[in-house]
Fold these 3 entries.
Entry 1:
Amino acid sequence: MPPEGEDTQRLEAQLIEKIREKGGHAGNVALRRELGWDDDQYWTIRDRLVDAGQLQLGRGKGGSVSLVQPAVVAMPEQAPVVPARPGISEADLYQPVANVLRKERVRDSRFRNHIVEITARAGRRDTGGIWTRPDIVVAALRVFPHAPGKYFDLITFELKPLSGINVTAVFEALAHQRAATQAYVWLHVPDEAAQDEAVSSALERIEDEARRHGVGLIVAEHPASYESWEIKLRATRYEPDPEFLNEFIAQQISPLGREELAQWFR
């Protein structure tokens, strides 16, 4: 029988401590042997920690697990909006863009339920390699009047200020498609920069590459104004492997966000 209550917490702490003793990474076979646990006990505790975002699965004979650093909770919705200005940094874009996504964008997309989190502020958390952490994530539930069932979407956004506009942004967003249903590149192009030849050339190449890979593209003059957001390309919707989707949610979404997601399907 799976352990319950305080015993569960004690065993979870025991497994984490054993992995920490081994440098933060260890094989399943070695962990079961050294802990002296039977298969049911080990897999139950290990899977609870994976689903809680404290462990991530790895490779090797018999499989392995690694510790994941705890997430930093995103700033609240009431945080002040930074006004758009020439030379604005990427970090300054997060909150105004997240605010617009929470309000106008989700209504435009007809989401029944949604959460929006700034995942770029996750500190040094290991999320699986280069380009695996988007800047903003929208998790949403949609219901259609003539189609049975509920449809879950996990949409990622890679934000770039004017100084960071480069085709590399498409490949960053493309890396998120492993777990996301849709991936977007969001670019800040102020009015005064829109006619610049170098900027226009970069935007053209980015749009071509995004179209080729099914990545969505949004170009905005003012981060805090949805009226200035131009949707150049809508992202192609994919159905990721449920295991990758579950791992992404466990590692990228805050505990409060994960609890809200669980409520949607109860």
Entry 2:
Amino acid sequence: MTHLIATQAEDAARLQQDLARALDGGPALALGMLALGSSDDEPEVVEDGTAVVIGTSGSSGIPKRVVLSAEALRAGAEATAGRIGSGSWMLALPAGYVAGLQVLARSILAGTTPVVLDGAFSPRSFMDATQRMVRGGEPLFTSLVPAQVATLLDASIEDTGVLAALRAYSAILVGGQALPVPVRERAAELGVRLVRTYGSTETSGGCVYDGAPLETVAVKVVDGELRIAGPMLADGYLGDPVLTETTFVRDEHGIRWYRTGDLGVVEDGIVRVHGRADNVIVSGGVNISLDRIERIVRSIPGLTGAVVVGVDDDRWGEASVIVAERGEALRRSESEQLAHARGVVAEQLGKPARPARMIIVDEIATLSSGKPDREAIRRLAAELR
């Protein structure tokens, strides 16, 4: 057994040193939204081989403590290098979450030190950090969330330096949530090399790139749910053997699979994610996937950063609501934009899936990971009836 040491993730250089020791059999690290259950005099212990325990609410909002072994983190980092290559990484995401942590792990594997943004993320800080990296002459890589990519693409219209910085990367991994099609198309037109990633903390980060599983990863569908196998799977959830047993299952061949909770298909080796199995409302007796509605809404110009949530509805039982930021949504009047979105959704998913309302806000609430804070957004939509 090994001790679990709470670690501050703000100091990336210190965390990389701690992670290197953890990967080499040193004390395991506790990161993220994690409350340790023991006092300082009696440190909590985990199984030997554990490198990191990451506290996360995932997409369910229920806190979990994901146990990742040194073997799993190495496997994830090595599989990424095998797909996109090795080089110098920029850390532009919180290191206390798996996407940021994997930037550190990949850097350790490559024998490099990641460049960290000065201060908060902005087009200027991104450009300055990239310029420092270019001088090294190595291939450049980073991980971003879709909102960061959209911010940089918008800034590149007026600032050619931002566009040059974006183009300097051999690959920009984009995950955390679905990448809106308009953002992806804009990047491609500008020569920015984005790689869409799919995965979770339980898979040591992204393990499916542009729909194709990494070399050591297997993906299958059981009863409509995507399941993932591979050496980068987490050991389970600290202190919750029941959740571990129901989430990580073995098939008749003894292969261990992670039940993602996502609906999807695998066609000709390409994984297509349809949305969360539990992000469904029942409106007028019809089951409706909010993820599918949101994906369609985000394909509409002016709504690429919108979030779709479900609320109680007096007539239909439940209904979907579009929440969008003011700067984007008001390219048309609010009523025109809602009418257009309802028409597009109805055409692709049927009339019962049409959003009932649109709410315009100054800024979409986000978590520290950069993902939308869906619970806060849902509460806001419920209050503004």
Entry 3:
Amino acid sequence: MSVIEVEGLTKSFGSLTAADHLSFEVEEGEVFGLLGPNGAGKTTTVRMLACLISASEGSARVGGYDIAQDSLRVREIVGILTENPSLYERLTAYENMDFFAEAYGLSDVSEKRNRIRELLQFFELWDRRNDKAATFSKGMKQKLAVARALVHKPPILFLDEPTSGLDPESSKEVRDLMERLSRREKHTILLCTHRLEDAEKLCSRVMIIDRGKSVIVGTPDELRDKIAGQPILEVTLKKLNQKIVEAVRELNHVLEVNVDDSASKLIVTLDDVQSVTPDVVKNIVHAGGMVLSVNTLRPSLEEAYLKLVKEG
């Protein structure tokens, strides 16, 4: 079931079109990535869907509500993390959470207290609840900002560059938290990022946008296949000889065999890697080969991204 439906969404600022007739859908419980360089229109798209700015053209429904006609209801069911989360640094972690819980209408004192405790424990910040946000590291501030976005139990999350400016360890912590949110609390997440590592590890599908326009929508594997076709099989052997090479070449579905004698490797191009790989290994073994490893080689998402944006 689609919980975000976007059709021809457009936003213009004078002569600049920041988002240009974008159309896509996000399924319930999915982590969907908006991927593109800085200035591509990702943040503008998220801000329209979160009803922070109005669209110039097109339409969208979030959680079944129209962003133009039901903006208040949309704001009630989404949590948003902006690129600059703007915590109140003179307040403690608990006070930040309490302030936003009140703003989101959590008036029952016991319910509010339990929700804040639950989130700060989930994000491993409970022991620092009485420390001012100004004393937190960037990674801890991002955790607190995500916790704040979740305080009213929204089913849909908009996360804009959640790992921006973080060191590798903090970035991994935030990615792990997003994965746990998707799996444990079943949130639908729209992840806005220019970091390919985030998209590759978290997103079931991505839409690449560039200069406001959609370049392609698909899974990371589909994007790779778009630029390279079928993946390539790499077989490493204990020892390589011509008999083994010919045993692989004689298979019907083998398109090309390249030999790396120095590393005792065969690089095999097949018309269907998944179904033909067992036959390749079988023929190698029958020819007396000892297989050390079998790997499927694909272009990286970075290679696919750069090529698709360049061609877009």
